[in-house]
Amino acid sequence: MGKRITAWLLFTALFLPVSIPIHNVQARVLFTGETVDSREEESEDEQEEKGLIQSPYGVLMEASTGEILYEKEKDTKRSPASITKIMTLILIFDAIENGSLNMDDMVTTSAYAKSMGGSQVYLEEGETQDVETMIKCIVIASGNDASVAMAEHIAGSEEEFVKKMNDRAQSLGMKNTHFEDCCGLTDSENHYTTAYDVALMSRELITHYPKILEYSSIWMDTITHKTRQGTSEFGLTNTNKLIRSYEGCVGLKTGSTSLAKYCVSAVAQKNGMSLISVVMAAPDYKVRFSDAAAMFNYGFAKCSLYQEPNPDRTFQLKVLRGKESQVRGEYGKAFSYLDTSGRSLDKITQKTKLKELTAPVKKGDTVGKTVYYLEGEKIGEASILAAKTVEKAEYQDCLKEVSQWWYRREAARE
Hints:
By secondary structure, the chain is of the alpha+beta class. Helix content is 32%, strand content 30%. The protein has helices spanning 2-15, 44-50, 85-97, 111-114, 131-139, 144-155, 158-171, 195-208, 212-216, 242-245, 285-302, 395-413; strands spanning 18-22, 25-29, 35-37, 57-62, 68-72, 106-108, 128-130, 220-227, 230-237, 249-257, 261-270, 273-282, 304-307, 314-320, 326-331, 336-339, 348-354, 357-358, 366-374, 377-386.
């Protein structure tokens, strides 16, 4: 009996195929000892993406669509250092937009603002500068003193300003962000964000307030200090070296502390596209910039952008039983499409479909749509909205219209 079992085990080991997992690779062991590896080789794109940047955290975003083209640990919370100031700049431009702040308003530096360490433009207590100068100090030279002075001017105190920063971050969907100060100088563990959230706030700043790029693309400038000690010139040099070394780079903000290491949110424009390249926790400033440039190269080589050629196009739609017989339709949001497949966007076609309308029609109602196709495949659509409200016609309106028609007919006969 024992000899039979031994013979059977020997036969099984030698002649029956066995399937074993080896590091998630399925290999079949044949009686000849030969192995067959069924794992597919990585594509060239996958290999390129894998070693694209050295830094541990990064995001590449196309600005108009918000599409992520590349990411590496995009949701890991990190200290942002001075790229915190992107949110500070958003709130400054928010205040300008709502009319509570003007570019030529004068801002006074407090003792507290003057006391900021780190990057500064050496504002003196009681010194006044206009808002535009303060913006330059923040975005070009990363002035912590200028940032705090602006925070106090807008909100009364840095603490109140930081509350507004956190509220604004939430409104943008920055789920993994919390600010403790307005300039990123703090080493508090409660001051954090992620590469993805930095891309979100960078997108908000450059798309809603593109004027910021006029300032962030300045390489060198000067400001004039006017204090009790007299008047002196102070030079500003941009901390973002990419605006000189990478063609098309127009901003945006750098940052570095011992805790955050080296960070940058860079913006480059080429071929009708704006890309946002975010790098966090780079080991040194050279890697910070080389990683951002590598992501730019990857994005511009891989992508092409189509945007509705007539975004202000309007449509006239007939309205039945309304106080007015027509209503104008317009795009609620211009269509854009980001292609990463290499197809020619010259082949995009569109078809517009308008509804038959009966009053009442409210302003903002969807009254049609334009559908876009690439090589016969639908790639998206844009809604057409009513530009005004058209009320339903009452009896008196109908009577008036009939009367006007009658008078016009009689006048034509004469």
